Model the fold of this input.
Amino acid sequence: MKSAYGRQTPAPDYELTCVEPGSPMGELMRRYWQPVCTSDELRDLPRKEKLLCEEVIVFRDKRGRVGALDPHCAHRGTSLEWGRIEEEGLRCCYHGWLYDTEGRCIEMPCETAEFRQAMDVWQPAYPTHEYGGLVFVYMGPPGTEPLFPRFDIIDPDRGEDIVLRGMRLWGDYAVGMVRDCNWLQHWENIVDPYHLLMLHQRISGDQFDGALTQGKTDIGWEKTPLGVRYNVIKDLPSGNRMVRHAECIVPNMFIIPSIREPGTSPKRKERGTELSWAVPIDNEHVRGLSIVAWPLENGAPKPDWKPGTDTIADIRPGSFLKRSYEERQRKPDDLEAQEGQRPIAIHALENLAHSDTGVVILRRLLREQLQRIEQGLDPINTVRDPSSNKRIPTGAWNTILSPAEAAVLSYSEDL
Ligand code: FES
Ligand SMILES: [Fe+2]
Done:
């Protein structure tokens, strides 16, 4: 027996998990556009949001421009969440100073115009960008903003009739309900396919549907140009073979292809329909935001369609709702497993095994990026050349091979 008496809990892996300003991972995260809310959430009131341990006030002025400002008014510090949205910007509730979306104070109603000009007050602000129905902020060093990366599945020019919609994971649709833990626990879970077999299938019994629950499974991992993916190969009872990949894209993006694939008709590379971000709110909370490529029918979003990971709430009843403690103990889900790793998992206490290969590759890849930042280099997935920012190939999809194809095709990167 290894007694629990007097044991000490080491500190979390600060380098990989903590994201406050100035922390290594916080600086890495700040080199990418991070989503803060959906575009249609910016209405006639400002929103106070928190990400990477910082609060920002996000708003859209009445001319349609989006700003992300430090919450505390540069005058005497009142929170701009109580401010009023106007044509030209956001007006502080206390003495009416008006800030435009860049943070410049353009009106001080209690002062003269000469005084305001002489003061030249700027509210600290971050650059913003809207894409695919989401609002992004760039919280890195000024002037280092990369282009917003046009991955193939969210490139409007991807050759299919789609409309991009910004959605909240766990709000608009579901892949589990994990929220109250460190972002890395949730992100690295994407390349942990063994938990599908154990947690969702053997332990809790009924948490998936279709081909994912059938047949013999072979599991592998590989680095991709963007990050890491798993390779799951399933020989289905029908004789068809399923090849499936889910991908983590550095630093905190991921793609999960449809979890409802029935595996009945042969198909090649049916890609995921959502690019998602696990955005750290702070070190112990994570938020999910996605761009969903929604198919069009006669020019309008197809009404009966759902994102490929949407029906978890249907096939895992209760996973999206409040469940009793007993129910959670009998049928634990992602929330119980991941939040149960502690608010921040303690890497020093883990015993990583072969089945954690994806996690190991991912953490190594993150550490390499931390070094690149230290050396003054751009980290992976920094896009600066507009001519290469087009349909950047992602690596997550479902392929179904017929028995005849399965007999002649051995696994290759392209399946
Ligand atoms: S505190 Fe904002 S205008 Fe005075
Ligand atoms: Fe899961």
